[in-house]
Amino acid sequence: MASQSARADSLSLLLFTLRSGKLMAINLLKVSEIIPCPSLTRLPEAHPHVKGVATLRGNPLSVIDLARALGERPLEQPDSGCLIVTEISRSRQALHVQAVVRIIHCRTTDIKPPPYGSGSRSFITGVTRVDDQLVQVLDIEKVIHGIAPPPPAPAPETLDEDAASLFAAANILVVDDSQVALQQSIHTLRNLGIDCHTARSAKEAIELLLELQGTALEINIVVSDIEMSEMDGYALTRTLRETPDFKHLYILLHTSLDSTMSGEKARLAGANAILTKFSSPELTDCLLVAARSVVFGEH
């Protein structure tokens, strides 16, 4: 198998701080702009972690009190700081933080999984070190889900015989380092009557693929997040394509970013398709295409 150490992609992180002063980071691709904190309109019935609504170029923008959402002390001066405006998973919102520090450039291999024992309540997807300081990479999807969870996916209509037959042939592995995103995908698959295997990292995914190889449960479809620690979805795809036993896999890359912006990179890595999180109907359609490809060899 190709060396994992050779599968590093570059990554840009925006470093910021909350009141505690500890360094946190967010993938720069998820940031659209940074602005001083403007005056906010308070909404009396809003979620307690939503500070209010800002107006940005005539459009309303929900502002999340990130310190409160993470269970930390609020900013000493509530109207100070700045807003990090994010666009992910088909939604736009702003994070109120103490200060933006700088942008750093690193390799995905420099981002390590959260320390063992972080627990399911942790709001980080990885850690790295900058100038000998620990930096925690924010799981922004989990923050947003805790404030505004997506509506439950409607129960699917009864699958027709052809679709049911196709899905019966699908052995699916879902790879995502965000527990929230992973559960969303699992829920969609279960609504389709599909049991799937899961992994929280590319390394764990490769180990599982090797374990199931040659068994009745051998994986034939991989649905992988792109923005993961240590080895991202592009690097995982390239590694699988360069490995004879796995190069036949149908690979769907699932991203919290705009998939139209990442499509060419996904194609060059060897992915069969790419999809923006999270739309249960669109994921279902993509899985049907994947299952048809597996059954009829239509890569």
TrEMBL record:
Residues 10-149 form the CheW-like domain. GO terms for biological process: chemotaxis; phosphorelay signal transduction system. Keywords: Phosphoprotein. Gene3D superfamilies: 3.40.50.2300, CheA-289, Domain 4, SH3 Domains. The modification 4-aspartylphosphate is found at D225. InterPro entries: Chemotax_regulator_CheV (IPR024181), CheW-like_dom_sf (IPR036061), CheW-lke_dom (IPR002545), CheY-like_superfamily (IPR011006), Sig_transdc_resp-reg_receiver (IPR001789). Pfam families: CheW (PF01584), Response_reg (PF00072). Residues 171-292 form the Response regulatory domain. This is Chemotaxis protein CheW. It comes from Pseudomonas cremoricolorata. The lineage of its organism: Bacteria, Pseudomonadati, Pseudomonadota, Gammaproteobacteria, Pseudomonadales.
